[in-house]
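User: What would this chain look like folded?
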Amino acid sequence: MLDNLSLRHKIPLRIALLILLVAVAVSGSILLRAHEVFEEDLKLSSANMGRILSRSLTSALLHDDVWRAYEVINTPSSLSGTQGALQAKIVLVLDRNRQIYVSTKPDQYPILSELDSADDELAALSRKLDDALSLEPQLITGPPFRNLYVITPIESDGVLLGTLIMGYSEEIFTQRFTTFAGRAALTTLLIFVLLVPVAAYWGRHFAEPLVDLASCMSRVGSETAESLECDLLEIRGNDELAQLNRQFRLMLAELRDKADLERQMVAAERLAAIGRFTAGIAHEINNPLGGMLNATNTLRRHGKLDPLTAKTVNLLERGLMQIRDTVSALLVEAKTESHPLTHQDVDDTRTLVTPVAAGLSVQIDWHNELTGEIELASTLVRQVLLNLLLNAIQATGEKGQIACSVRCVNDTLCIEVRNSGEQMSDETIAHLFEPFVTGHDSGRGLGLWVTYQIVTGLNGTIEVSSGRADTLFSVHLPLPLQEAA
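Assistant: Here's the prediction, encoded as structure tokens.
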């Protein structure tokens, strides 16, 4: 969905998203640092308070003055300005036997009671006293404790008199952090609201030239160069967008010049094509003449009209007719008349190409499955088969393999010529049946073009597939429907 949006909307949205991500990242970093600062401040303040109270309690414990100890631990909450963030939730003083000596909540934690019996959290704290107690105040926090505890030893001349435990509610820290986080979120929102309109303006400012350029480029090809008019904004400077704008304008001018030049060249190409086409016809005439020369040589060797000589004379006659039909295929208005195709017509084509194949030591695997007469012009079908076989011989080269199959399948004449030549690329196949296109050193590229014209004229189809092993030409010619008697 977003990929289909115009750059007019996509660029502002991405800039806005970038602003939001940066704002969130900066705010998150500030909040993380604030969390660390608040935590360090709370620990440092509570540790300092623990040191002060432990020194004040030393005299009370030495003189076993419970009331004095009670006044000392209640002093912080009674002083002005100590309410709020650094006020302890509970303060306990333990004697050297780990019994409660005095507390800020005597009803809940009575004198001389065991710390283990106070509550579950203090019981867990009691088990940590041996590990936590040292000459310096220790902080204990985290699961399973819901509060932050500062444990400070009370000692005199290296003698341990007792232990001071101060418990701070984590709500103190949470409230301070929540207040700061709310202010940071509000600041982030204000920055986002202020910068988004600026991002939208600059995004549209950069996107408009690109959108106009893309709209104009989409019309290239669908409209002629002369009719293509684009109202592009002139972009100052020499950045990539300005260079693209100038190059596109230059391309449009060159397209118009190219169109004018092409119109001039078309007329000249047509005249040149006539000359090439005439020369190509001469080349195509050489195919049946080869059969005629072969028949003449046979007649010269035998010197009398025995059955073989009579067959040779018949081939000469068929060759002359082939010359006429080749010219007819090149001329659109020509009409070709011929007898129906027979088994012998197909074998005659084999006889014509055999000397050419033998000259290159090419083996032909021949399968002629026709029986009876086929209601197709024999000269045209023989021309198709002849051109395909000669093309296969040239493609396969010396000592190649060719397989030829002619048969009728479901009122369709199927001709398949397979050769073991090199694999053809898709680009070569795409232009294979165009006139004057050839992949061989000899010839003018009219053989397959003539074949294509004959096949399409007979309402048939011709297909080519080329792989690493071989190349296959498949021709399918529909048989004419028999008229009802």
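Confidence is low (pLDDT under 50) at residues 80-85. If you want, I can go into more detail on any region.
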